[in-house]
Amino acid sequence: MKNSFLIFALVAISVFVVDQAIKYMFVFEQFYWWSECISLELHYNRGVAFSMLAFLGDYLKWIQLGLMSFLVYFIVKEGYVKSYSIPAGLLIGAAISNLTDRFVHGGVVDYVAWHCGFDFAVFNFADVMIDVAIGTFLIYEFWLKPKDEK
User: Fold this and answer.
1) Are the beta carbons of 129 and 93 closer than 8 angstroms?
2) Which of 57, 120, 15 is nearest to 7 (CA)?
């Protein structure tokens, strides 16, 4: 259990640090790059996915803080850190990084804009890590988990 928690913590801290470092480049160094399909440019998302719930304003960060607190408690209490230390670390580190943006910048710092053929969402490294974590949870649960554990 100690090794699992250490892996969980290291992964979460690593994702947080990498994501915040990348966001620093866009917020403070005004990094910008454009191509025909993908642009790297600063955006602030005041809502959640696709700017939904932006109408909640500052309440959104407090709601998310409550949900994050419950999620961390649930992951640790139910023993998911032992079985899923890497995806749990990816999920928590990324979620805490995006939540930190809400408190520091007033919205999540997004910077990867897809516009090849159609305008897609603008996202960041933490968003990708959340997707990877959820995908890993699902793959393990439905395809890799031994039958006697199901």
Assistant:
1) yes
2) 15
Radius of gyration of the chain measured on its C-alpha atoms: 17
Domain boundaries, the chain: 2-149
Q: Report which of 148, 82, 111, 121 is spatially closest to residue 19, judged by C-alpha positions.
A: 111
Q: What is the pLDDT of residue 47?
A: 81
| Amino acid at site 3 | N
Residues 6+ apart with CB under 8 A from 60: 46, 47, 48, 53, 54, 102
Query: Which conformational region is residue 51 in: left (phi greater than 0), alpha (psi within -120 to 50 degrees), or beta?
Result: left
**Quick check: helix, strand or coil at residue 134?**
helix
Q: Compute mean pLDDT per 10 residues along the chain, 150 residues long, and list them.
A: 88 98 94 90 86 81 94 88 92 96 95 82 93 94 71
Query: Would you call 79 helix, strand, or coil by DSSP?
Result: coil
Q: What are phi and psi of 110, to 5 degrees?
A: -115, 155
Active site residues per annotation: 110, 127
